[in-house]
Write a structure and sequence with these properties.
By secondary structure, the protein is an alpha+beta fold. Helices cover 48% and strands 12% of the residues. The chain has an eight-stranded mixed beta sheet with strand order 9-1-4-3-2-7-6-10, with no helix packed on it. Strands 5-8 form a two-stranded antiparallel ribbon. It has a two-stranded antiparallel ribbon with strand order 11-12. The longest helix is centred in the C-terminal third of the chain and has 36 residues, at 341-376. It is elongated and about 205 Å long.
Length: 470
């Protein structure tokens, strides 16, 4: 093989003549033991990686029985308190149409203990197929569950989908909810800017709400009492569910009737500012009224003590008068027909109409009876005195004279010679009595009055005999 040498610079000594080429240097040979050691180290690294990747870092596998698969897939997370601790490795269908979900749990959480529960959860309501299993480990003082153990369906809980919530509503409610959602969407069409401005007030509103609830629960005793009393009130209201339903139905009818009066409502709303303005003027004078009322109360305080005594003494009167008032009420309003004053007043018009028809005949009869009644009129005191005082002691007097002029007559004996008693005949017993006095004047049954007012003759018009006196 020919070689090309570089040119020799001027003034430089010429290189020595080229001889035969020297052989290349030999590399020292590696020993066989070193090669075997490197291959073993490489194999150990591969085994460690395989164990770490395929073995999952230890842990244990458990089986969970769910009533349904709940859209779980292989690889879904298993969480404890929001921290992933494993994943779903397999899902099988049993002959009883339940789902057996195999999960692999990390070694940091194994072994599980009795009392462990599992629940399928969704990260949010907007998620449809995304699922994870929330694991709640049992107490550590309970017996441990060996790897491969199965949690029964009683220890698991399926997820509640939004569709299941809607299925609890009846068709009318679902339709109303659908119309509400559609109406809300139509309400905000073209109002995105205004809605964005409204959302700016959400943080202050949330802060105020947080402050409100902080103050609400600051006094736990009062808050607990409030909750207890509220529960009692709701229990009482629930016991009257039928009345409450009627109230709601009537309220619906009322609001429907109010809604039908749109024109009247609009007119009322137009007049409302004027009314409120007038009300402001009225309320402006209320403080002065209260001041005057305070002065009145202060001036009335000295009289409160006598009023207390009056009310104390008035109580027995009211207690006694209550039955009287009740009876007085019955006099005006008693159950039954024609038995109270109200019925009497209602009958007066008919009585008046009957009297109007009988008045001419009554006037005629009164005129014709005057000659008869005129004779008996002056004797009315005697007649009234007889009816009123007959039977009382004959020796007493009143305005009409003696009560009675009765005296017993004993015709058995008469006074004879030498003041001796002898049997008397009837004619001798009645010798001193007068008879035939049938025309006495009024007032002649007693001694004549000194002023000449009795016997009463009415100037001789009565046709009586004033000489017929006792």
């Amino acid at each position: 093989m020919a070689t090309i040498s570089p040119p020799t610079p001027p003034g430089a000594p010429a290189p020595p003549p080229a001889g035969p080429p020297s052989p290349p240097p030999r590399r020292p040979a590696r020993p066989l033991a070193g090669r075997l050691l490197a291959g073993g180290a490489l194999a150990a690294v591969v085994i460690v990686v395989v164990v770490l990747v395929l073995g999952g870092g230890g842990g244990a596998t458990y089986k969970l029985e769910f009533a349904e698969g709940d859209q779980l897939v292989r690889g879904d997370q298993v969480q404890v308190g929001g921290v992933p601790v494993g994943s779903v490795s397999d899902i099988e269908l049993t002959p009883n149409f339940t789902a057996i979900v195999k999960i692999h749990v990390e070694s940091s959480l194994t072994p599980l203990h009795e009392g462990t529960t599992a629940e399928v959860r969704t990260p949010s309501l907007s998620s449809v197929a995304n699922r994870y299993i929330l694991l709640t480990p049992g107490p550590n003082n309970r017996p441990a569950l060996p790897a491969g153990s199965k949690l029964p369906a009683s220890a698991t809980k399926s997820v509640t989908d939004l569709d299941q919530l809607f299925n609890t509503f009846n068709p009318a409610t679902r339709k109303g909810l659908s119309e509400f959602i559609q109406g809300s969407a139509a309400q905000y069409v073209g109002q995105s800017r205004a809605l964005g401005l409204t959302t700016e007030y959400f943080p202050p509103a949330l802060s105020a709400t947080d402050h409100f609830f902080s103050e609400l629960i600051s006094d736990q005793r009062v808050f607990t009492s409030f909750l207890v009393e509220t529960a009692k009130a709701l229990t009482t209201i629930g016991a009257h569910s039928e009345s409450l339903s009627s109230l709601i139905e009537n309220a619906n009818t009322t609001f429907t009737a109010i809604g039908s009066q749109q024109a009247a409502l609009a007119q009322g709303l137009r007049k409302l500012p004027v009314t409120l303005h007038q009300g402001n003027k009225t309320f402006a004078g209320v403080p002065a009224t209260f001041s005057a009322l305070e002065e009145l109360v202060n001036a009335s305080k000295p009289t409160s003590q006598p009023l207390t005594k009056l009310f104390t003494k008035l109580r027995p009167l009211l207690t006694t008068g209550t039955p009287v008032v009740s009876n007085f009420s019955l006099a005006f309003n008693r159950p039954g027909p024609n038995n109270d004053l109200t019925d009497y007043v209602r009958a007066l018009p008919a009585l008046a109409r009957a009297l109007e028809g009988a008045e001419p005949a009554g006037v005629t009869s009164l005129r014709e009876s005057v000659p008869i009644t005129a004779f008996w009129g002056p004797y009315s005191p005697d007649l009234e005195g007889t009816l009123r005082s007959f039977g009382q002691a004959a020796g007493y007097y009143d305005a009409n004279g003696h009560y009675a002029r009765l005296a017993p007559v004993f015709p058995d004996f008469a006074l004879g010679a030498n003041n001796t008693l002898k049997p008397a005949s009837v004619s001798e017993a009645l010798a001193n009595l007068k008879s035939g006095q049938l025309h006495r004047c009024p007032g002649a049954a007693t001694q004549p009055a000194s002023d000449g007012s009795s016997p009463f003759t009415d100037n001789g018009q009565l046709g009586c005999d004033p000489s017929q006196v006792p």
